[in-house]
## 1
Amino acid sequence: MAYRDERLPREKVFRDPVHNYIYIQHQVILDLINTKEFQRLRRIKQLGTASLVFHGAEHTRFTHSLGVYEITRRICDNFKRNYPTKTAGDGLWDDDKERLVALCAALLHDIGHGPYSHTFEHIFNTDHEVITAEILTSPETEVNQVLRAVSPEFPEQVASVIQKTYPNPQVVQMISSQIDADRMDYLLRDAYHTGTKYGTFDLTRILRVMRPYRDGIAFQISGMHAVEDYIMSRFQMYQQIYFHPTSRSMEVILSHLLLRAREYYSNADNANEMGAPYLLFPFFKHEFDLDDYLLLDDGTLTTYFAHWRQSGDPILSDLSHRFLDRKPLKSVIYTSETEHELPGLRDLIEKAGFNAKYYTATNNSYDLPYDAYDPKMKKPLTQIELMEEDGDLIELSSVSALVNAITGKFSGDQRFFFPREMLQNNAADTDLFDPIYQAFQQHIHNDTLI
Amino acid sequence: MAYRDERLPREKVFRDPVHNYIYIQHQVILDLINTKEFQRLRRIKQLGTASLVFHGAEHTRFTHSLGVYEITRRICDNFKRNYPTKTAGDGLWDDDKERLVALCAALLHDIGHGPYSHTFEHIFNTDHEVITAEILTSPETEVNQVLRAVSPEFPEQVASVIQKTYPNPQVVQMISSQIDADRMDYLLRDAYHTGTKYGTFDLTRILRVMRPYRDGIAFQISGMHAVEDYIMSRFQMYQQIYFHPTSRSMEVILSHLLLRAREYYSNADNANEMGAPYLLFPFFKHEFDLDDYLLLDDGTLTTYFAHWRQSGDPILSDLSHRFLDRKPLKSVIYTSETEHELPGLRDLIEKAGFNAKYYTATNNSYDLPYDAYDPKMKKPLTQIELMEEDGDLIELSSVSALVNAITGKFSGDQRFFFPREMLQNNAADTDLFDPIYQAFQQHIHNDTLI
Amino acid sequence: MAYRDERLPREKVFRDPVHNYIYIQHQVILDLINTKEFQRLRRIKQLGTASLVFHGAEHTRFTHSLGVYEITRRICDNFKRNYPTKTAGDGLWDDDKERLVALCAALLHDIGHGPYSHTFEHIFNTDHEVITAEILTSPETEVNQVLRAVSPEFPEQVASVIQKTYPNPQVVQMISSQIDADRMDYLLRDAYHTGTKYGTFDLTRILRVMRPYRDGIAFQISGMHAVEDYIMSRFQMYQQIYFHPTSRSMEVILSHLLLRAREYYSNADNANEMGAPYLLFPFFKHEFDLDDYLLLDDGTLTTYFAHWRQSGDPILSDLSHRFLDRKPLKSVIYTSETEHELPGLRDLIEKAGFNAKYYTATNNSYDLPYDAYDPKMKKPLTQIELMEEDGDLIELSSVSALVNAITGKFSGDQRFFFPREMLQNNAADTDLFDPIYQAFQQHIHNDTLI
Amino acid sequence: MAYRDERLPREKVFRDPVHNYIYIQHQVILDLINTKEFQRLRRIKQLGTASLVFHGAEHTRFTHSLGVYEITRRICDNFKRNYPTKTAGDGLWDDDKERLVALCAALLHDIGHGPYSHTFEHIFNTDHEVITAEILTSPETEVNQVLRAVSPEFPEQVASVIQKTYPNPQVVQMISSQIDADRMDYLLRDAYHTGTKYGTFDLTRILRVMRPYRDGIAFQISGMHAVEDYIMSRFQMYQQIYFHPTSRSMEVILSHLLLRAREYYSNADNANEMGAPYLLFPFFKHEFDLDDYLLLDDGTLTTYFAHWRQSGDPILSDLSHRFLDRKPLKSVIYTSETEHELPGLRDLIEKAGFNAKYYTATNNSYDLPYDAYDPKMKKPLTQIELMEEDGDLIELSSVSALVNAITGKFSGDQRFFFPREMLQNNAADTDLFDPIYQAFQQHIHNDTLI
């Protein structure tokens, strides 16, 4: 039997807290899970610094990737049972042709992520999407070897789904659209592990009303409220979890810490110290290859931080301490009207003895909860289409007042981060810095810069 | 106000997936959570290698420690509301005197754990209980500084609860007995994160029927079945999760890997290589202090393994690969009757090219699900007492046929671990090793050595 | 001890699927639950005909009433712990004075409901609010006897909370406002029993951010998103459960059935038949007293329907059959533009052999999901107030784009109901009525009248 | 297409709180659900008087019947996917032949139940199994008409599955054995609605390890602990829910009430009173037909009780009041050693003014949680078989110490029920009956007769 069609003699399952079981039916999928590149995702937390606020959220990208696979598998099952193609081009689902490429793309869509991905990329100018494509298509990876065994062009096909250039929009939208297997899994999973309820929506019902059509995936109109509820859940998760100020403040510390390390180890003497971060040197110099990248995980970084906490460089040492021992910065909301106050605040912070470059930051958190298709956007979004009984399509926000209220509107805030010492109230009367703290605190009211 | 009585101006909460919220009311507790020794528990997984079988089980000892604190807090609330002491020695609960010491002991009971605790201790002869006591009582730790601020003797008091020498048995049994806050939290939490249901029992009901008496803690007889159900849950979790053969096989690899590393780096040349595990050297030589110990976490070990995977030593490299990339050993059950076959099997494994010292192991997993008090035991267990309406006590197994069935009986199995290559079926016909594999496989039937 | 202060020697609990346990601490509350008027609520379903669509929703008003009590109890606990009054008029919570009246009002707020309340009231012109007040204040009820034992004016006080005339707005709003114990319980409970997820919101968090102030109850601004999420849940439950067209169609049948019965039994001969509905006669004539009312429950009505199903009157018999054996009417949405078509449709239905008076109906379902206070409304709503750190209040819809999108806007639809026979497709070719059906069906497209 | 193969153009679903969705795929099944005999199950509570103790347990036999159908459907799906027959007699699953008969039997297995089945049968000597068979095979029922349309012998086939005489033991054991779809649904459902956790077991895992073999259904040995856990859950539900003394005491009242009514209405004058229970007369005389039976539901009985509460017969009136207004009897455990005390107690109760015939009772509750096959039993049980890797079978209790501990042992107790007035403590000093109460109370200690 061709490798692409090889079924396991008996279904294999992984117990999963969100989906109960993950069902593995293809030898290809099992082989991909067993590659070292995929196993490495066990050592990279899904939510990065958010686990420092929501302590249960210690789950990894490994777990999430299996979940995206499982949701995709269920979508395929439903499409095969209810909307099987009869003649080429009829806009229905061609399971024989599309299932395996969809499943592989779902499983591997995050394989290029590194530790604390967002921050790491920002500082070292890496790109997890580029690296994902590399892992899929470079002949030396175990992932590529498995994919290649399906067919020589299969690695590129899977990569093209993730890059949204695959010809069948049904497959692309399954993995990547405003309501896709990726988002549905992370909302449910992050809600489960944080212990919050905002991310809960009715997955079974959404899978039930999902259907293929010529230009991608649509939802039966009878399921409108279930889709609406999913959009609301997503909105809430961003507001309550992903944009949490304390979590963002730990990201600020992390990025300043990596910046400081690059600067410190650019000095050749320092670079020869015991405990120098050899594995990071290629990134400090921006001369890294795929092997360098695949050696990194969350533990590598925190192991360096533990070394650095004992460093002779006071800033490197202090920032490492603040990160490992969880001493977040504080923050206030500012707006374009109050932004002009920031230089004054930074001055006060410098006067209080902090290097403003490493101890302050501004950080914007904005999300577009939903938008209709807009050809003028740089990357136009695939809008959510509802299908009426007679087959007509209608865009979600045109029938949902709730969705319409947030369509095309960014939500979030911009914050100025600073050391919590600036808010100290218990300074002794004779404290030399007292007037500085008082001047600083006058600018803050109701969590906002005034 | 005395520090020991200092309440937070407003209750602080941590969102928790198992208990919904963890409520912090004392400044002391908040300060303990913020110590570096406690924050370090965020980097040590609760279940070690079990997350390699149950992928959701990536939760840490930090999370569990908060949970044990919360259950203890709820027990104290119930005791205070329903069983407050009136006169000294009446066998009821003295909340003013005992609450804080109970809460601190609950929170800190696991603070001495290191990475992959069980295996690490076995190989390096460390003892997490000794280290816990050290962290509580050594003046240089942040934990000790917080405890000392309560009173000079407070650190010793908290330590004595954990060591079971504290005079009030109610406090000791709350934290450590056959049905204590520790076990109740880990069963519920491990069930939640693995996604299994075996560990689920009725916590609210058990807390409701729990009550203090002169010699410790008893349970109203009306709650007998809830207690029975807890014992059953515990039994099931051991059988299904904690004793899982694949998880034990990953522990075998881990311990052999650490053994090999100690041997390899005992050679001075190797010890000077780049990437040598400086942080482990004190343990290789068994000359470590508390600071050395507190630098270690899960990430430190896996970072070394990533280095070792590229080592020139083939065994060190291969075992690192097997651990990081999850290539478990296989195993079979053996008994005292079949044990004599093991040397023969080890010979075959050597012939197939594996060093039996590093590639085979025997491992017993036995648990005593419940036992009545037996003065002849080395460490007699506190039996579970049920209280009748008239105040009489009756031991659990004497009224529960189910509990009686497993009382005093060890459950578990003993297994022989070996490389999965020994079971390969797809060896080419001309394979030189074929007769070896065949000879080996003849000894295995229905997962058992014959 | 005064009866009002009498605590149970030991807390009593009722196991509850939504709140886990309901805790009873006052003798008064236990005595109220044991009255015959309260026990009668066990025989009246909470959701009426909705259980004919969501089969799990068979829970009763008894269960819900206990739930409203429990939520109120938890609110009082939180207020007492965190916001106790110090001086009269400080806007904080006076637990000694207010707890018992709040708990009784919560428990008894629905005590005047009868079977299929909404429909029954509409047809027989009864009013459950008036009856609630009567049950509380009439000396012959068991409820009144319990309340009177607290103090002579206590029955009136409890009634005034339910009627919103009680002087302390904190107590009134706890039981009755846009976010009160009543709504919070029914959303969670109806979601639980229907098995849908829309009604799920974060009760614990809402209770945590709730606080008393001078003019009632406010919510800390940090909990804004939890409150917003509650409003969304409420909106979804109305759209998906409470307004379900099939459930409304069964209500239409029920009301037509009761109408027909009144007409039929107004004939004296019929009124003497075996199985005549003696218990309903006082309502047919609108000459009923409280005793008549309290004899009715769901079972009384369905028992009559079972008799009527065998009646000689074909309409009474057929409608009884349609209700008991669940044969819903069909429906289409119409608007003010298409309303003029209805008489033509009714004609076709008459031609097909149905009495349009009993076999057709129009029915509007509209809900106001949230509104700010508007003095011009007949019954202005208590708006939801958020409290900022400095104590300022801010109305919910002014900070939540989502809530704003539905504020003051009615949601729902208007539908025309008719026999499902009108849509039959399998009429034999020679069917005389065929042209009638075809004419009828031409008016319907995508579930809408055209 | 033949009716038996007729699939719905699109799967229909019912939202279910336990199974999430119930999937209907055959026209036959939908037609059966729509019969009046099946709809009648909506008016018969699953747990009878247990809802008077666990107030959430108001679910009906309708809901449970759908659940048994759904579990059976999932078993068939699994068997079809993994164990399809290849040659007749190979011991695997013949889905084409067996699915529909299995589904119909699952759906209809409880169709003969009446209101408060257990008690009603006991008093009126009816038998729900006989009636089930009658409903399936009598030509006048709607159920029979649907079944007959499949084939003339189909009604008898379905009936034979329920009567365990159907030739294929796989189908019989699916519906009726020690681990069948019936029990699995009611344990989960009763746990859900009572809000207890004891009934929770891992349904998905059990369905996964279930498999057909020549003589019925077996379970893969790897699932032993899941099966063991199911047996434990079942045991706990009996101990904690089904055998609850208060629930049994309400059954005692109910049976005495029906007895009294039969006696009272055997007098012709009484039988002509307004409100006389015409629908029960056929049962009083034991001359009923199927139509008489199908007219009854829970509401019919409680409607009569409401009438009787106002009866001139003091015992009929008082027992009706005790049932409707929930005034349970009290009870004590007695044994064969203390049984001789009962006549003395009955004397005291008579002296206190109660008719012992109607106000006392003995009631045994015993369940056999599990047993191996024993040919000496009157109705030998199908034992639970585990299948080893090589196909050998092994009986459950021989490998599970827990199950072995309760195998073949009846659990439960025997209780003596009496009016709670006998325990009154607040009798005035001058109470004439005081010595009687004191004499009575001396016999009771720790809930047990002494």
Note: The two ends of chain C are 71 Å apart (CA to CA).
## 2
Amino acid sequence: MTAAELNREIRRKKSYLCVGLDTDPVKVPIHLNRQVHPVFAFNKAIIDATQDLAVAYKPNLAFYEAMGTSGLEQLEMTVDYIRSVDPSLFIIADAKRGDIGNTAEQYARAFFLHYDFDAITLSPYMGQDSIEPFLQFPGKWAILLALTSNSGANDFQMQRLTSGEPLYEKILQESSTWGTPDNLMYVVGATRPEFLRRIRRIVPDHFLLIPGIGAQGGSLEMVLENGRSTHGGLLINSSRGIIYAGKGEDFAEKARAAAHDMVSNMGL
Amino acid sequence: MTAAELNREIRRKKSYLCVGLDTDPVKVPIHLNRQVHPVFAFNKAIIDATQDLAVAYKPNLAFYEAMGTSGLEQLEMTVDYIRSVDPSLFIIADAKRGDIGNTAEQYARAFFLHYDFDAITLSPYMGQDSIEPFLQFPGKWAILLALTSNSGANDFQMQRLTSGEPLYEKILQESSTWGTPDNLMYVVGATRPEFLRRIRRIVPDHFLLIPGIGAQGGSLEMVLENGRSTHGGLLINSSRGIIYAGKGEDFAEKARAAAHDMVSNMGL
């Protein structure tokens, strides 16, 4: 998918919403546990209830890996199901990988070819040759961590370099030349809206994937005000705030209501 | 396993060797492809041929994930097999993960409880709260990327901070207070021996996991001279140089010979 196509979907659905599928088997409502694949059953219900409101879904790999092969099987079922519901939905593997060339190639093949993800989140720490293998797949995307939403972001990302800027800005400047706004986007936490304006100056045309609205306390209004590009350029993620909005048999309706609430405040 | 126990194994076997199981199904010798689990059959032969020479094994997760659920199954079989051969072998998940608290917990459970790994490699980019969940498991280890062996290490790891030191030294200084030499070690590439001496001054007692000998061109002699701690404190990894030493039916004998060669130069 190109950036123009993704922006078109955003305008069509009047939504920047990415639903994070951080599905914890322990939190799946009890009535689903009778199913052979309770995590997939949960995801399917969430997808059915939100597919007209969301432009993207983001399964968090850790939750599926923690379940072993059964988790991976249900991840695959989830990705296939999203594709079958609407081929224009953007599917992100939240994997935060990052490794040297030959290993990066294996990961790229795993996420882009074995699974049919559109994008994968990556850590920039190992530099250009750890990212480039992901930029070789037409229509597929690398999403680099820039400024994350957790308190640990202060430990290293905010460290100032002798060249004057903090590390995360250096990463934006350098890495933005490795790909294009059609195959590279950045993770910027909603908990740091004061930096969004500066980030937009460094990467005016790149998509930003924004976690941290809701459970982590970020403000949607501030993100919209400071983060939008000329053409849109935002994917705003909510995970727990949507998928765990309800705990009972009506969890999918509650998820839909939470998603609707968020989208109606997106000003599109 | 404690640092003292690992150092004891190193002295007993006169070896710092960690064998990297970056097993690419495409490179498995043709006669093994008749097997139901060719990657496991390959790993089992390598382990049988090297278990008295190596103190550690390091499956590279990317290669197993690229194969989908079958890869994960063969990874599990591999870890279980190593445990059954010799419970004192140290098993590292080369995963280079790094994510916020609740996700990090999922990964820790996946690697330490679902699989029985002793350690997992992690990226430090997201800071302390992304690492701490891995330090809560008695006897288990977090291995942080400090200075990697690839050319991309120059992009950000070597960037100098206003406080005077390069980023990777700041990471060593800060993170060494998060855990102890009994649950925290560091990845330092053998391709950068000139920095090993400085690193040893910052973390005199921590284990260093050293990739980059062999295929990547690092010198074993330089690593031994500059990297050893008082008690040992090194795990020296070789992946392709050992597991692909031969291509035919005698691949395991060739792997043993390559491992033996390396260990006999370790001066123990």
Note: Chain B has a mean pLDDT of 95.
